């Protein structure tokens, strides 16, 4: 009798462990029906009652049977891609039924090239969501206004889509966010003034949009910020001086904007910054002569601005300058000798007013 009880109990546990929540299965079925993936057949695995095993890209909490992850990447090392010898392609849209998966932590629908439609606004009710990655599709519409409700979100990647509208004000409430990639969309308006409230952010990638206004001063509070890419926007105003003294900032890309004023000394005297691109702006004044033995730039691009004066002599004291581009400015006078100048090509200096000496013609 005891034995029979134990067997029944074990069976019950096994069933409970394996079974997918019927309401989650129903939501996944509707989600699937609004998408079409013609070449790999991944949705052909989404059959049978147990959505927690063998449904490609679906993971569940093993004790509750609730769906926790939808992880569908159109470009990966997975064997189905190798076998099909192609990358993924998917059309259709993201069904709002995805919002019924209330235990969802991961929603990745990345690099399928052609998923269109809008991000369902109800997505902001998925309070357990940690990763939202929809990169590389054709998603339109706006970023849901209430995005800031996703308090556990660490990754927000909506890059390479056709999203319009402004960056919602509520975005600054994503207090756990570490990566924000909204590049290559059609966002307009300003970067929120209180953007720096996002204290956990280490990568801010907003390039290739139509963002305007100036760089918010609150960014100076983002003490984990390592990578700031605001290139290819309509940003104006000057480069804030604090940018050179952020604790872990190493990459700053501001190329192709309308930024004016002078280059702050701190930016070029920083020994933490390694990649700085200020190309194609409206910067003026002299290039600060503040380089030193700890200067280490893998790339420093100041080309296509209105910089005047001479090439700073202190550049010769730098520990390392990989790629240097000072072309298309109004610089004048002799190019200093010694490292790194003996390694650089004429293209780094061309189209200035009156630069001379190696690698250009003698003075
Ligand atoms: C999703 O939730 C809504 C609202 O609770 C409900 O009406 C709908 O039937 C659910 N969808 C599925 C597929 O269970
Ligand atoms: C800097 O930005 C310009 C314009 O986007 C680009 O052409 C150039 O290659 C960049 N420089 C470096 C060193 O990456």
Describe the structure.
Residues 22-61 form the Leucine-rich repeat-containing N-terminal plant-type domain. Keywords: Leucine-rich repeat, Membrane, Repeat, Signal. It is found in: Membrane. InterPro entries: Leu-rich_rpt (IPR001611), LRR_dom_sf (IPR032675), LRR_N_plant-typ (IPR013210). It comes from Dillenia turbinata. The structure is a single chain. The protein has helices at residues 2-18, 22-33, 79-84, 265-269, and strands at 35-36, 58-60, 67-73, 90-93, 106-110, 113-116, 131-133, 155-157, 179-181, 188-190, 203-205, 210-213, 227-229, 234-235, 251-253, 260-261, 275-277, 282-286, 296-301, 306-309, 320-325, 330-334, 354-356. With 363 residues, the chain is α/β, with parallel strands linked by helices. 11% of the residues lie in helices and 24% in strands. The chain has 2 domains: 2-273, Leucine-rich repeat, LRR (right-handed beta-alpha superhelix), CATH 3.80.10; 274-363, Ribonuclease Inhibitor (Leucine-rich repeat, LRR (right-handed beta-alpha superhelix)), CATH 3.80.10. It is built from 4 helices and 23 strands. Mean pLDDT is 94; it is low at 1-16. The strands form 4 sheets. A 12-stranded mixed beta sheet has the order 2-3-5-7-8-9-11-13-15-17-19-21, with no helix packed on it. It has a 5-stranded parallel beta sheet with strand order 16-18-20-22-23, with no helix packed on it. A 3-stranded mixed beta sheet has the order 1-4-6. The structure holds 2-acetamido-2-deoxy-beta-D-glucopyranose (2 copies). One 2-acetamido-2-deoxy-beta-D-glucopyranose is lined by residues 23, 26-27, 30, 97, 100.
